[in-house]
Amino acid sequence: MTQSPGYGAEPRAPFAVDPSASRGRRHPEPVSPTRTPFQRDRDRIVHSTAFRRLKDKTQVFVHSEGDHYRTRLTHTIEVAQIARALARAFRIDEDLAEALALAHDLGHTPFGHTGEDALDAMMRPFGGFDHNAQSLRIVTRLERRYAEFDGLNLAWETLEGLVKHNGPLTDAAGTPIGVYAASGLPAALVDYEGHADLMLWSWPGAEAQAAAISDDIAYDAHDLDDGLRAHLFELSDLEDLPLVGPTLHAIRRRYPGIERSRAIHELTRRLITLMIEDVIGEGLARLAAAAPASADEVRSLGRPVIGFSETMQAVDSALKGFLFPRMYRHPEIVRVRREAARVVQDLFRWYMANPETLPAEWCEGHREIGEAKLARRVADYVAGMSDRFAVTEHARWFDDTPELR
């Protein structure tokens, strides 16, 4: 068998994060004789409780709507696969890119962004709730598996990429920017900054940027796939979308009379391929122009080196513009999301009023910690629930639990 060009053993790019030069871990540990720091981080993430719970957390649909729609776990695996492909093409550290992809959704609540919005509303008097910051809280504090420390004790580069994979959170003076400009940094980020400077003002390394754009690619293609399979819209509705429509026409020309399910899969896989190829071409051009000689130079450029071209960015915007009203705001989805939000808010209120009903390890010392710390503890507990467990717990305490279907 001949090997495809570009997939042999390639030397590491000069701007790749170097595992042998990691800035280390908060709690010093002996170096592994068999794994790099980032391979070790990837393995710890995969073996974490939070990672296992992703199998029963919603991507868009709730668990009762069938087992062939995507969950947070299946989405995460798909993102990791794309991230490794991009990392290989750019000759950056595949293990770090994979670790970041595997960890990027650890902080999500039950019922997807619906649950996050509901919990954030409950937590606004206490510093708010943000799934990205919650991911950091999980890997630095909430996972309790090791004898010598809380959290997973991940390498600095993994924590940095996890927090900043979508870009800087502050300006150089430390003032929150972007989505945090109005509300300020989430409490979990503020709390952690006292332990390690994650350079919130800079872009992350190329590996984190690869993981972030992989998340966009997976969302676009696979939400389209799920929406079609749920009959929220039809293939004919996509004909005027840039790139999507022409790709669909090409499939029909080559395979006249192709059955609907095969056409959906063919469309999804071709879109993923086209988006990956676009990111590789655009990224190589940006990297050639910037010529960064190290990972720190990537961080200090003030702009991302890995992303969509302008043309593909327009496709991404058009696709999201289509999916928002047709899928995310579909009347049936909105109805279920409204009921799911009530489940989360009811549970939060219940545990705040009745903290003694929390599991023993969660309610210990609740009378001495004050309202704000109790609220954070309750948010941690509720956020960690799977969709199914949240519904079960709601039925345990309430008589009006929705069916969510």
Automatic annotation (TrEMBL):
Signal peptide: none annotated. The keyword Hydrolase applies. Pfam families: HD, HD_assoc. One of its GO terms (molecular function) is dGTPase activity. Residues 72-220 form the HD domain. It comes from the Bacteria. SUPFAM superfamilies: HD-domain/PDEase-like. PROSITE patterns: HD (PS51831). Residues 1-43 are annotated as: Disordered. CDD domains: HDc (cd00077). Keywords: Hydrolase. One of its GO terms (biological process) is dGTP catabolic process. The keyword Hydrolase applies. Belongs to the dGTPase family. Type 2 subfamily. PANTHER family: DEOXYGUANOSINETRIPHOSPHATE TRIPHOSPHOHYDROLASE-LIKE PROTEIN, DEOXYNUCLEOSIDE TRIPHOSPHATE TRIPHOSPHOHYDROLASE. This is Deoxyguanosinetriphosphate triphosphohydrolase-like protein. It comes from Methylobrevis pamukkalensis. The lineage of its organism: Bacteria, Pseudomonadati, Pseudomonadota, Alphaproteobacteria, Hyphomicrobiales. The gene is dgt.
